[in-house]
């Protein structure tokens, strides 16, 4: 009987593991509405489910709200502008009422200039002025997003203060901002306070990167991490690896047509670019990044820990350099096996033949998204080929089933906690700037750190998620420490950072940093995500209970039978004796 039970469990396990790899779930998610340009993620209606912001026909924004029934995303909210083309969508709470507003940038129909108009919708719309570059972060540390940009009135970058909606000069930089830029708002010096990272042009017209660190002084200070890059068009993404420090990943082309591509890594304190991927050849085909002029988005890596091993993987769009096809590829973060990357221990390996991902021709954007809010990152790909100029949306479910664990962390704005205006739950306002780090012991007993910045980039379809999923690898231990830091105002001395201990893996942690300046009263709510392993354990437990109950029942029944027999015999004997 025991074997039969075990067999059943094995069968169940086998069934659960059968669907390894990627699975096309587009129809279940969108029904017949799977087209448009996915522009941003955010929880628009505060129901703790991430909604999708999709652009259609250039001037229409649809918000697909997450729903319990198929199709799981339905277009419920619609905004449209009268003239021009929407070039960016950045959801966020721009006035501090803990409700999500939507910022749009628009451009005239025929792209006559690089100038962008900025509009914020909060029920009513409001036009805020003209900009050249823009980027969203909380400059003054009040956790209300501010708009950073160069206006048509001055060369110096300006800040549009969120609550105030007035322009102020921002930084004392002499460099011109580079377009397309890869500005970011993320902690670079491990003090849990977001720093500013800018892409600028040097006096010799080369792309360079500047970091502006929030030092305990009255202004943001520029540090020496200004490294120029001599190759052509670049963009970048941030990643943090096993040591918990933010690193700079730079996908680059050596020539204008991207015949030779590479991905480099650098970090503050490291004075060179180290290649983490140079080999773009698969069989007879040489692949390469797609130059910005041929693609609506700059060369970008979208980062996410696909296999939850604690090392972030990436998605990239590559083009057949001798043909015309372009496809999305998964780059897995693996131990370094080449002399060139030895000093940083890690490199990328390309999955050339990942089924269902390689079925999508003419891919334009590929990014990670947790479709079923189960902590496992799935993949969304946009591809050309839908009618008009709209893209087709493909969603691929990640059926990865290793015994790996994760923790999903969301840091809210903390502008209110129970006393929010008009009794709304403060959930779901995309919050740029928080920094999250964990330390734990891995399966081999080594100390392991991991970290991530929440919403560090916003422009050029950065498509960052409003939460972070941190992979923990195969160790099912409690997370020893989880630290969360938020931006602080310039001039404030104490760091705004709080620590939580013994976090259960496979859980979702919602951090409410309220009030901002008293980290010890911040609260964290823990939601458990029952994974398959937990479910299996439960089923196994119930199975064992039923089994034991059955044995007890049988034994009990046999004993009762024996008892009865004995009684009958006794009665018989008694009768016999009495005779
Ligand atoms: C995924 O499914 C949708 C709807 O069934 C289909 O239109 C699409 O072509 C499929 N994509 C891939 C890559 O198979
Ligand atoms: C903003 O709203 C006004 C009416 O309040 C409307 O006339 C205008 O066209 C709107 N602007 C955009 C960009 O939708
Ligand atoms: C900048 O743009 C605003 C809004 O369109 C306009 O009113 C202003 O005249 C422009 N300034 C310059 C210097 O072009
Ligand atoms: C708003 O702007 C005004 C002047 O433009 C300034 O005096 C005031 O301090 C600002 N308020 C905040 C909260 O930044
Ligand atoms: C992890 O972080 C802790 C605390 O910041 C630090 O002491 C330790 O050296 C880090 N471990 C690794 C492997 O980098
Ligand atoms: C790349 O393009 C060349 C030339 O059109 C073609 O021969 C080759 O098969 C293509 N490679 C792939 C993987 O599609
Ligand atoms: C190893 O590095 C060399 C250059 O240092 C490069 O040419 C080669 O393609 C790399 N090999 C792999 C497998 O990445």
Automatic annotation (TrEMBL):
Record-given protein name: Integrin alpha FG-GAP repeat containing 1
Species annotation: Chelydra serpentina
This protein's GO CC annotations: plasma membrane
One of the Pfam families matching this protein, by short name: FG-GAP_3
InterPro entries in the cross-refs: C2_TIP, FG-GAP, Integrin_alpha_N, Tip
Transmembrane regions listed in the UniProt entry: 533-557
Superkingdom in the source lineage: Eukaryota
Family: Belongs to the TIP family.
Lineage, broadest ranks: Eukaryota, Metazoa, Chordata, Craniata, Vertebrata
Residue span(s) of domain T-cell immunomodulatory protein TIP C2: 426-527
Signal sequence annotation: 1-21
Topology versus the membrane: Single-pass type I membrane protein
Keywords: Glycoprotein, Membrane, Signal, Transmembrane, Transmembrane helix
Record's subcellular location: Membrane
